[in-house]
Amino acid sequence: MKGIGTDIIEIERIELAVSRSGQQFLDRVFTPAEQEHCKGKVQCLAGRFAAKEAILKALGTGLRELRWTNIEILPNYLGKPEVKLTGAALELAEKMDVARVLVSISHDRGRAVAFAVAVGKEGRDSAHSNSE
User: Fold this and answer.
1) In Å, what is the CA distance from 101 to each residue of 67, 93, 104, 117?
2) According to the annotation, is 7 in a ligand binding site?
3) Transmembrane region positions (predicted)?
């Protein structure tokens, strides 16, 4: 394991951002595929926003040179959220020897929460490395 991250957000914050900035906010934070998947459902958008924050924490960075859209979260055929990194996020993950990022998203009582784990390439997890 290379890193873990978690985030919680009030769904109302995303609803407010969408009502204030509309498509500009959506295009800055979510890929076209994420927007299509969520179809304007604020709970879905908030879950992905929390997941992206959790992923940034798992990678040990803020946005810096990354863009929100360098992280895409879409469901697989079973509905499980799958993470796809592109651009600067992918470059950072490769430098860290991260093979993949796992994420879990949940919603309850007006909040969305996400947990992310950056998984190292085989034999390169920092928890198993031995420098002696």
Assistant:
1) 17, 9, 10, 6
2) yes
3) none
Distance separating alpha carbons of residues 113 and 46, to the nearest angstrom: 9
Q: Please state, in angstroms and as integers, the Cα–Cα distance from residue 111 to each residue in 5, 68, 122, following that order.
A: 17, 20, 35
**37 labelled catalytic:** no
Label residue 39 exposed, middle or buried (CB < 10 Å: 0-12, 13-18, 19+).
exposed
Give the residue extent of every domain in the chain.
Answer: 3-128
**Residue 129: what pLDDT?**
45
Q: Exposed, middle or buried, 49 (CB in 10 Å: 0-12/13-18/19+)?
A: buried
Q: Please indicate whether residue 107 is annotated as part of the active site.
A: yes
Which entry of 37, 39, 41, 107 is annotated as an active-site residue?
107
Give, in words, the CATH class of 3-128.
alpha beta
Closest CA to 40 of 48, 50, 75: 48
Work out the number of other CB atoms within 10 angstroms of the CB of residue 122: 8
Report, as ranges of residue numbers, the positions in the chain whose pLDDT lies below 50: 127-132
For position 122, what pLDDT does the model report?
A: 73
User: pTM for the whole thing?
Assistant: 0.90
Instruction: Give, as one character, the DSSP assignment of residue 128.
Output: G
